[in-house]
Amino acid sequence: QVQLVDTGGGLVQAGGSLRLSCAASGITFSSYTMGWFRQAPGKEREFAAAISRGGGSTKYADSVKGRFTISRDNAENTVYLQMNNLKPEDTAIYYCAAGSIGILSSTRNYDYWGQGTQVTVSS
């Protein structure tokens, strides 16, 4: 049974930082690209960041580039999203996802999803 568990969300003031974690089980973690997506109320789920199987390549949405950093620990089956200089427009539910195709930004390319963790940034 595949399980992705997202944790680390919370309420933070603008300019603050949060670190999200996603622990995977039931998959060969190192065989999957890992991504973070987010969904704000009334909006579609959008890509935030992705990292290759070995961690050597990353991709970011323009809206988070320079502020967010994705990383992974294949020994711990965990992917992280370090979010700095948070803005109110970063408020959303954040989801991690596992995909087998590559570092892609479409939700259609990801096979497994976490339950999401709420991030709220106050102004």
Can you describe this structure in just a few lines?
The protein is an all-beta fold and 123 residues long.
Supply the helix-strand structural class: mainly beta
* Biggest sheet statistics: 7 strands, mixed
Distance between the termini: 40 Å
Annotation, overall tally of beta strands: 11
Q: Could you report the average pLDDT, rounded to the nearest whole number?
A: 96
Give the SSE order as H and E letters: EEEEEEEEEEE
The proportion of residues forming helix, as a percent range, comes to under 10%
Write up what this structure looks like.
0% of the residues lie in helices and 50% in strands. It has 123 residues and is mainly β. β7 and β8 form a beta hairpin. It is globular and about 40 Å long. It starts with a strand and ends with a strand. The mean pLDDT is 96.
